[in-house]
Design a protein that fits this description.
Elements (H helix, E strand, L loop, with lengths): L1 E5 L6 E6 L6 H9 L5 E7 L3 H14 L3 E7 L8 H13 L8 E5 L1 H13 L6 E5 L2 H7 L4 E6 L2 E8 L4 E5 L8 H18 L1 H9 L1 H5 L3 H21 L14 H10 L7 H18 L5 H13 L12 H9 L4 E2 L2 E9 L2 E7 L1 H8 L2
Parallel strand pairs: 2-9, 3-4, 3-5, 5-6, 6-9
Antiparallel strand pairs: 1-2, 7-8, 10-11, 11-12
Helix pairs in contact: 1-2, 3-4, 5-6, 5-9, 6-7, 6-11, 10-11, 10-13, 11-12, 13-14
Length: about 350
């Protein structure tokens, strides 16, 4: 068992990483939140629920919680107000209390939606992340970002609400569809690109091990990414400044997701495309050698990830989608550029400038 602590004063929490330990979740949650809580709600989606909710809910019941189970359909397109309202209804029906934890079991969609519900129902209840996808384990489950999508853009409605516990069982990745596993690797590559040149080099060196999900390597990679994310969050909890480096590849990635209605590309796939575009733009503004752009594109390609903007998307469409992005301020985007592999800098760019780089 590996453990990382996110140090945020009164909002600090552990990230626990292991294999096959979800049966002990209830006991660990009791250690974290105490004996006062008598109810808990488990939120999952239609694909993950049959696989892991029985184990998680059973563990919580053994620890003395009265558990209600809430299920939403699978897919980013369901991270919206309509399904949030259903979750609210179920939480109220289950007589949830201020001490009752909401436990999200699944990927980033479940974590974002359940986390926003936990942040706002009864003005905030304890939240627990049990991420079952690689993308959620290394990124989405850590840092307290919660939210839902709006027709105008991704994650436009949300709140910061730190979890009380992040419980990672890497054995859940065995049931993850291959495409989703590969999509999660995009976020792993991101951490290497922006913060850790050694991690990036190890991914280049161990592509085959990564692709076959070597258990020892995968546990180490997840732990390293969690540690990197934790340090960033500790320095800038609510993304006032430094934490924005984690948006590398996301400005364009979110625009592509919005324009394709969250149906054609997985989040990690869109981010992979966005990272390549961001690297090319970094080279264009003079901060990144061409060889580094090629390394990034080559690694993503080797990991089975897309690197080109869908051919049917137009530059003007991308520009408009970027303008709607929540990170725009005064007509400019705080765009994350690479200086080298493992180092970043910000450039204030317009949506038009970014779109032009995506589609020259």
């Amino acid at each position: 068992m590996r453990e990382i602590r996110v140090s945020l004063g009164a909002r600090s929490y552990p990230i626990v990483i292991g294999a096959g330990w979800l049966r002990a979740l209830g006991e660990r949650l009791r250690e974290v939140i105490g004996r006062k809580a008598i109810r808990a709600a488990v939120v999952s989606d239609s694909r993950v629920a049959p696989l892991y909710v029985p184990t998680v809910a059973g563990s919580l019941r053994e620890a003395g919680f009265a558990v209600s189970e809430i299920q939403i359909p699978e897919g980013e397109q369901h991270k919206n107000l309509a399904w949030l309202a259903l979750v609210y209804d179920r939480l109220v029906e289950s007589q949830i209390e201020r001490s009752s934890p909401v436990v999200a079991v699944g990927g980033g969609v479940v974590g974002d939606l359940a986390g926003f519900a936990a942040a706002t129902v009864l003005r905030g209840v304890p939240f627990v992340q049990v991420p079952t996808t690689l993308l959620a384990q290394v990124d989405a489950a850590i840092g307290g970002k919660t939210g839902i999508n709006h027709a105008a853009g991704k994650n436009l409605i949300g709140a910061f609400h730190q979890p009380r516990l992040v419980a990672i069982d890497i054995e859940t990745l065995r049931t993850l569809p291959r495409r989703e596993y590969l999509a999660g690797l995009a976020e792993v590559v991101k951490y290497g690109a922006i913060l850790d040149a050694d991690l990036f080099a190890s991914l280049e060196r161990d592509v085959e091990k990564v692709l076959r999900q070597d258990v020892e390597l995968l546990a180490a990679v997840v732990e390293r990414c969690c540690a990197l994310k934790a340090r960033v969050v500790e320095q800038d909890e609510t993304e006032g400044d430094y934490r924005a480096i984690l948006n590398f590849g996301h400005t364009l990635g979110h625009a592509i997701e919005t324009l394709t209605e969250y149906r054609r590309l997985l989040h990690g796939e869109a981010v992979a495309i966005g990272m390549v575009c961001a690297a090319r733009l970094s080279h264009a503004v003079g901060s990144l050698p061409r060889a580094a752009v090629d390394r990034l594109e080559k690694l993503l390609h080797a990991l089975g990830l897309p690197t080109h903007v869908p051919a049917d998307l137009k530059r003007e469409q991308i520009g408009l989608a970027i303008e709607a992005d929540k990170k725009a301020a005064g007509g400019k985007i705080k765009f994350v550029c690479l200086e080298t592999i493992g180092s970043t800098r910000f450039e204030a760019l317009s949506a038009t400038e970014i779109a032009r780089a995506a589609l020259p």
